[in-house]
Amino acid sequence: SGSASPAVAELCQNTPETFLEASKLLLTYADNILRNPNDEKYRSIRIGNTAFSTRLLPVRGAVECLFEMGFEEGETHLIFPKKASVEQLQKIRDLIAIERSSRLDGSNKSHKVKSSQQPAASTQLPTTPSSNPSGLNQHTRNRQGQSSDPPSASTVTADSAILEVLQSNIQHVLVYENPALQEKALACIPVQELKRKSQEKLSRARKLDKDIITLRNFWKQDVDGVASGPIVLHCAAEL
């Protein structure tokens, strides 16, 4: 049960749809490590990754589940270090899988109940011949009415999740605008030396441009003039 893990218990507080989507991705991350324990690429999750930032980051308890598995936060990635306990990862993974299975079973039972009730609902439909145009018009009006309904809760939730991701990324970018950190970075970079080298390269590039322009003018004015002269034309005729 999720009660053995505060993070899994928190994850279970989400709506069924949100839980199922987030838990699927969490299980994928865990299973990749368990199946490929020596593959480094499965031990890191880029924070800016679309799947992570939209399907886990805004979800209550999802990132906490990763931390309970053993992931640690880096500057741009969540890392599952070599020292982390694979047994702990397996434990949290199994708890999530149990909760996911129970919700999937509940969803399937609910679907079966709705399916069994469907014929009874269909008996309430009017026995109008299928060729009656009024039935088609009514169906069209119903669809038009449905299209004008207000946004569903899932749409609003998705919009809120996108907004949270944008706000999180904006805050993350501001880290690089910290004047103190910028000064530390500049102290490690030979700024004057780099400026001198760039000026030298710029001077060489400008000289090369001038040489190319001079050569182009030579071919256009001098060589073309000589090539069209009477002596050159006479020699060409003899050849």
Number of strands: 3
Q: What characteristic shape results from the CA principal axes?
A: elongated
Give the biggest beta sheet: 3 strands, antiparallel
Strand sequence of the main sheet, in spatial order? 1-3-2
CATH architecture of the domain at 6-104: Up-down Bundle
Structural class, from helix and strand content? Answer: mainly alpha
Q: From the alpha-carbon coordinates, what is the Rg to the nearest angstrom?
A: 34 Å
- β-strand percent reads under 5%
CATH class of the domain at 6-104: Mainly Alpha
Low-confidence stretches at least 5 residues in length (pLDDT < 50)?
Answer: 120-148
CATH topology of the domain at 6-104: Methane Monooxygenase Hydroxylase, Chain G, domain 1
Order of helices and strands: HHEHHEEHHHHHH
Ends distance: 98 Å
Helical proportion, percent range? over 70%
Number of helices: 10
Q: Average pLDDT across residues?
A: 77
